[in-house]
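On clarity, I found the account of how folds are encoded harder to follow than it need be. What matters is that the chain and its backbone geometry are given together, residue for residue. I therefore recommend that a typical entry be quoted early in the introduction. An entry of this sort, consisting of the sequence and the corresponding backbone structure tokens, reads as follows:
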Amino acid sequence: MRHAFDIVGTAATADHALRMTAPGGDVYVVGPAGSGEGELSLSLPRLLLQQKRIQGLIMGSATPRRDIAHYAELYLRGLLNLDGLVSRRISLDGIDAGCAALQDPEVACVVVTSF
């Protein structure tokens, strides 16, 4: 795997992302680490020899005016599959069931599509 995104923010998930990324790969740690979860032990020789990179990202890492337009263009050109990220589409009346569905690990994203 060339890129891995850790959105959980624990040392264990960041370590796992590093281990599963191929040599020359990039690991992106999104958002702040939880309290007491931010200590990651690294093997510098392994990191350097495998030429892996770790990048921390927070909302300030983006330039929304530029980035959202770019992502929209990629989506419209068929180069960014956002539809595959949506597990369920619900109406606003089904919001309680939609929230409950998020407890299922198979459900990644629930989107309200009708009001």
